[in-house]
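If I may wish for something, please sit down with the protein I am sending here and say whether tokens and residues agree:
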Amino acid sequence: KCLAKDPKTRPADAAELFWRALLSDCNGEAFNAASGGPEYTVRQLADEVAGLFTPPAKVQMDAAAEKGYQKGAVKRSLADISKAKKMLAWEPRTGLREGLKRTLRWHQESG
């Protein structure tokens, strides 16, 4: 009924979860479509993206952002996918780095 998306979740993984839920007898259940971990800081995620470029891009963050002191900023986010694993035998297949590579390639090909 409701899919909570993690920014690191790849569309193919979320689509597979959607179809498994749709075709199951789990009517009315809600499942998290998420990477399942590990947790990444904003800096770590930025470094992963920067590393995909040749030469690698330089990540610049101001001191407040680097320390995580921005007012209202999400400090941690990790969705629990154990229910989807147990009830639908679902697990994400695409790792972070591969998902980022595919996303970058899509953007480059799309102009």
Summary: Residues 1-7 have pLDDT under 50 and may be disordered. The chain has five helices and two strands. The CA atoms of residues 72 and 83 lie 29 Å apart. The beta strands are 3-5, 31-33.
